[in-house]
C-alpha cells in the first residue's frame, strides 16, 4: 500500500496520522524511504519505512460506508470473551496491535461488557480507554469530513467542545478526547450489551 503527502492514515495503537512528507534516509549505509507521520492526538512525529507499511499495519482511515458497518458491529450484541484474564488480555492486545478498527471494536465491546459485571484490572481499563479513543478519533474524523455530524453524535465531537473549537484552539493544551464526548459518542454506538 502506498500513500501520498496529505493522506490520513491510521497507525496501530496510536490513531489518526497525516503523511507530512516522504523522504529517503541513509541509516548505517542503507538507503530507505520513510513516511513522516504526524499523529493528530499528540502532535508527535513517527517515521515508518515505506517497505514496512504492511508489517506495522499502517492503513487508510475508514470511509463513510465503513462507519455504518462499524456501528452495526458495535451494536450486534455478539461478544467473544475469555474467562481467564491472561488469555483475554493476550487476545485483546493482539487485536489492538492489528490496526483493524473492527478488531479494536471487538476489544471495546468485550471490555465494556465485562466492566458491567466486574471491575477491570488497571491494564484492561487502560486498554478500554485506548480502544474508545481510537474508535472515536477515527469515526469523528470521517464524520467531520463528510459533514454527517449530528446523525451519530456531532461532527468532530471527540475534538470539539463549546463553540465548535478544538481544545487546542481554545488553549486547552493536549488534544485528547474528553470524557463527556466519549460518553456521548459511545452512547450513540447503540451497545446491545
Protein model, in words:
With 193 residues, the chain is α+β, with helices and mostly antiparallel strands. It has two domains: 8-60, Beta Barrel (Thrombin, subunit H); 64-188, Methane Monooxygenase Hydroxylase, Chain G, domain 1. Helix content is 42%, strand content 18%. It contains six helices and five strands. It has helices at residues 53-56, 64-75, 85-98, 101-117, 122-146, 179-188; strands spanning 8-11, 15-27, 30-39, 44-49, 59-60. The protein has a five-stranded antiparallel β-sheet. A hairpin with a 2-residue loop joins β2 and β3. α3 packs antiparallel against α4 (101-117) and α4 (101-117) crosses α5 (122-146). The longest helix is centred in the C-terminal third of the chain and has 25 residues, at 122-146. The chain is globular and about 55 Å long. Mean pLDDT is 77; it is low at 149-193.
What would the keywords be for this entry?
Thrombin, subunit H; 193 residues; Methane Monooxygenase Hydroxylase, Chain G, domain 1; alpha+beta; 6 helices; single chain; 5-stranded antiparallel beta sheet; 5 strands; disordered C terminus
Topology, please?
Elements (H helix, E strand, L loop, with lengths): L7 E4 L3 E13 L2 E10 L4 E6 L3 H4 L2 E2 L3 H12 L9 H14 L2 H17 L4 H25 L32 H10 L5
Antiparallel strand pairs: 1-2, 1-5, 2-3, 3-4
Helix pairs in contact: 3-4, 4-5
Amino acid at each position: 500500500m502506498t500513500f501520498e503527502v496529505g493522506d490520513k492514515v491510521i497507525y496501530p495503537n496510536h490513531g489518526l496520522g497525516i503523511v507530512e512528507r516522504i523522504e529517503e534516509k541513509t541509516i548505517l549505509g542503507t538507503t530507505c524511504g520513510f513516511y513522516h507521520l504526524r499523529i493528530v492526538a499528540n502532535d508527535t512525529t513517527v517515521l515508518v519505512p515505506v517497505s514496512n507499511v504492511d508489517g506495522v499495519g499502517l492503513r487508510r482511515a475508514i470511509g463513510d460506508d465503513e462507519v455504518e458497518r462499524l456501528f452495526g458491529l458495535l451494536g450486534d450484541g455478539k461478544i467473544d470473551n475469555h474467562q481467564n484474564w491472561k488469555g483475554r488480555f493476550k487476545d485483546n492486545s493482539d487485536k489492538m496491535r492489528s490496526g483493524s478498527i473492527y478488531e479494536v471494536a471487538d476489544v471495546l465491546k468485550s471490555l465494556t461488557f465485562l466492566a458491567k459485571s466486574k471491575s477491570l484490572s488497571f491494564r484492561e481499563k487502560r486498554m478500554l480507554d485506548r480502544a474508545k479513543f481510537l474508535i472515536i478519533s477515527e469515526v469523528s474524523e470521517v464524520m467531520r469530513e463528510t459533514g454527517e455530524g449530528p446523525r451519530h453524535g456531532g461532527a468532530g465531537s471527540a475534538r470539539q467542545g463549546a463553540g465548535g473549537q478544538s481544545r487546542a484552539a481554545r488553549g486547552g493544551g493536549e488534544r485528547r478526547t474528553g470524557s463527556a464526548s466519549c460518553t456521548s459518542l459511545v452512547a450513540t454506538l447503540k451497545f446491545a450489551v
